[in-house]
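Journal club side-thread
Mid-discussion, someone asked how the predicted structure for our own chain would compare to the paper's figures. Pasting it here so we can look after the session.
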Amino acid sequence: MKRCLYIGLFLLLAVSSVEGQQNWPSFRGANRTGIAEGFETAVSWDVATGENIKWKREIAGLAHSSVVVWGDRIYVTTVTSSGGEQALKVGLYYAGDSAGEDADLSWHVMCLERASGKILWDKIAYTGRPKVKRHPKNSHASSSPATDGEYVVAFFGSEGLYCYDKEGNLAWSKDYGVVDFGYFGRPSMQWGAGASPIIVDGKVIVQCDCQGEDFLAAYKVENGEEIWKTERDDYPSWSTPLVYKDDHGAQIVCNGFKHGGGYDLQTGAEIWKITAGLGDEPITSPIPMGDLIFLTSTHGRFAPLLAIRPTAKGDITLPRGETTNEYIVWSNPRGGNYMYMTTPMFYRGYLYLCADDGRLYCYEPKTGAVVYQEKLEVARRYGFTASPVAADGKIYFTEETGKVFVLEAGPEFKTPVINEMGDICMATPAIVEGVIYFRTHHWLAAVEEK
């Protein structure tokens, strides 16, 4: 039964109005919080028996992109191959290999009926041999789409940026040429795209840090006209930006290795920056923490946690040996550990970080104090790629083999309920009005408490 829930002060500041409850417009929902309150969500389910499974729909191809939801529609991307199923190497390993394709691929943007999972339309944006290789653990459709209810945009890296209207008509597209995301230390390693576009105030925002021309850009959602484009001098990253709004205005917060920072939403002008001490392969996205912005990087010599005031101006880089300044409330230079694929979760007054090997940390977000550290049970050599989401006092952590850990939020660690999806899970779930949408390797399932 649907029921209203108490939402604490931190959550009220973090969630963007009613939209966060009724729609899931981009990666991790409204404003990257990963939260959807106001409805009861399931604690347990069984895919095999159908318990608490509203529907299940096969999705052909290989993709790690999350679904997005608006109103009665779900949007999803995938890539199919003329040569059969594409190879996928899953698990904990740290080789920087690349995977090529020996067949033509087709990049799809699809629309499903939210109530039943019925496919309403399926459009092929591009067909051909991939212009770059991918990491064996990645897909050629790992960037999640974004929607504002009227349009849906999908970023496929070297294969382009595409915008469709809600009926599936192509509104516009952009060809960026070869966009190479890979290891900056060895250009032959190509790993594919990961950062997702977002739509805000009629603007499509794209962060593109690659082995070439790096930029942050804004386009008009209705016709693709460029509003502004800001150069970024950085190495490749896979982090989706955050739009943070408060009484002082709106800024786009970007993660990066050489250059993290905030940009004015209207003009693209840089507001603040950090130019040292960030991890070298940024994957996690910035998140809002009430009146703070939380930034973490995850790899190499530096793997910091940073709590930043949104009023930051200029270069706020910390001098060596210091952990705070006027705009950085607290920091932990090794708090990110090695390695985080998952974006953190700030929920009901606490900050949660899940490492790829299942180490779970709960922090007090105003001070950076560790509340607890535990280990989620994972299959041998497997871990976490999907980012956590939360609703109804529960946090959902999805492990690569398909285990979903349902953890009660709060300062005390309680043994999670574990559910099995029965398929590889690399995509971050979506939650709308109490229904959780899990995208697995082969299908999409809607989980609902009955």
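Post-session note: The chain has a mean pLDDT of 91.
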